[in-house]
Amino acid sequence: MLKLYLLISLICLVRSDTDEICPSFTKLSFHSAVVGTGLSVKLMLYTERNQTCAQIVNFTALGNLNVTKKTTFVIHGFRPTGSPPVWMGDLVESLLLVEDMNVVVVDWNRGATTVIYTQASSKTRKVAVILKEFIDQILANGGSLDNIYMIGVSLGAHISGFVGEMYDGQLGRITGLDPAGPLFNGRPPQDRLDPSDAQFVDVIHSDIDALGYKEPLGNIDFYPNGGLDQPGCPKTIFGGMEYFKCDHQRSVYLYLASLRENCAIAAYPCDSYRDYRNGKCVSCGIPQKVSCPLLGYYADSWKDYLKEKDPPMTKAFFDTDDKKPFCIYHYFVDIVSWNKNIRRGSIIIKLKDKDGNITESKINHEPATFQKYHQVSLLARFNQDLDKVAAISLEFSTGSVVGPKYKLRILRMKLRSLAHPERPQLCRYDLVLMENVETFFQPIVCPKLQM
Questions:
Q1: Could you confirm whether 178 is annotated as catalytic?
Q2: Where is the active site (predicted)?
């Protein structure tokens, strides 16, 4: 709640501009946020025919909406300054690029714009009722609930849940992007988004310690970077407005990356973020014929598999880079040491290709324990995927500033790609690492095991 209160106290004036050619998202001033706004919902339809110029629709006029196609609703959340969401245009454009569908932007800025969060949250059920009236007309004209997809951001996620509940969970799909936590944490299922609100519910939690909801809310709940502080976001209040909204909004940008960027973000079902970081869940715990779940638009590829689970729910963890396209590439670093005494410490590994590109992974979230002739498998995460690695460097550290410098004697090091298991595994034998000294070497292709 602290971030929420600080956010409200630091809100700046946003200018309202009413000059427009095409219907667009409502722009309100900070004055409107201070005095509050009554609820008014505007539905803006985008299709292949009108990709950039919205058409106003309502339950009496469906406009260009084709009821035989998927209809995707995009629902924003709390708007404390009255400004339009900066990501809305990109999301609409990206959705229309991946599939020929109807995209309906649910503009409830008049209602969501207020500096008093409780006033905005109190209007969420009323928004849901208006959306049900519109969907009823789609159904009356031959549409199907199977083709209804709702993407809800923050408060919008719970609005989606309320709509789904009114249809007894028969909506095709709901995606919750960092569902709002304040006033919803700990509430019963009927008062928030819930797995039973649609045939498939996927959720991205990116700010569970502040503005987002911590506990699982869907059939699959994704926790980027554990759901806490997101890489690249300000860590202190000196980051200004970004400090308050960056983690919360990262869920939207990760979803956008699944639509437009040239990388598919795989996540790993696991009991905890710690277990994921320690490499305990990278097999996905499933048969080889089923790939790991993908974040974002294509998350429903796991729908049929999850139906077989009891209950049909799972949590999935992954790490991201600090900038677009956010992709991280996973490798295992297997180390067999031959020190007489146990060594505990962290490893920094760098990969270099023949063109001089370098990518680095710091495996330092908790000390690894190296014992004589025991293999330690460390999960390394790189922001580049180098196809042909020409050189590798390793650096060992105990984290001690004072005291003796230790050596880590390595009998064998093996590097293997998780994303591309067909690639040759790379090895190095008989290597001595001096503490805090980077050691470069050329790897060789590991010999294949003889059967």
A1: yes
A2: 154 (nucleophile), 178 (charge relay system), 248 (charge relay system)
Do 380 and 270 share a structural domain? no
Q: Is residue 451 part of a domain?
A: no
330 is catalytic: no
Count CA atoms within 13 Å of residue 103 on its CB side: 26
What's the distance, Cα to Cα, between the start and end of the chain in Å?
A: 59
* Catalytic residue from among 76, 158, 205, 248: 248
192 is annotated as contributing to ligand binding: yes
Query: 395 lies in a domain?
Result: yes
How does DSSP classify residue 86?
T
Residue range 136-182, pLDDT digits in tens: 999 999 999 999 999 999 999 999 999 999 999 999 999 999 999 99
Identify the domain boundary among 267, 290, 318.
Answer: 318
Please indicate, yes or no, whether residues 246 and 179 belong to a single structural domain of this protein. Answer: yes
What is the separation of C-alpha 223 from the centre of its chain, rounded to a whole number of angstroms?
Answer: 7
Among 21, 25, 45, which Cα is nearest to 96's?
45
305 and 363 within one domain: no
Same structural domain, 348 and 302: no
pLDDT the model gives residue 12:
35
- Amino acid 371: pLDDT: 94
Which residue among 283, 318, 353 closes a domain? 318
Q: Which pLDDT does position 402 carry in this prediction?
A: 75
How far is 23 from 14, CA to CA, in rounded Å? Answer: 20
Report whether 197 belongs to an annotated binding site. Answer: yes
| Active-site residue, selected from the candidate residues 24, 83, 94, 178 | 178
Do 18 and 123 have their domain in common? yes
Give 199-241 pLDDT, tens digit per residue. 999 999 999 999 999 999 999 999 999 999 999 999 888 878 8
Q: Tell me, yes or no, if 420 is annotated catalytic.
A: no
Q: Which residue has the tokens 């309502």?
A: 58
**Structure token pair of residue 430:** 């008989």
pTM above threshold 0.85 = yes
Place of tokens 């959306």: 131
> Burial, 167: exposed, middle or buried (Cβ in 10 Å; 0-12, 13-18, 19+)?
middle
What separation in angstroms does the CA of 74 have from each of 70, 161, 213, 282? 13, 13, 19, 32
**Residue 393: closest CA among 345, 333, 344, 447:** 333
Interatomic CA distance for residues 65 and 55, integer angstroms: 10
Give the residues of the chain that fall short of pLDDT 70: 1-20, 285-290, 449-451
For the chain, what is the domain count? 2
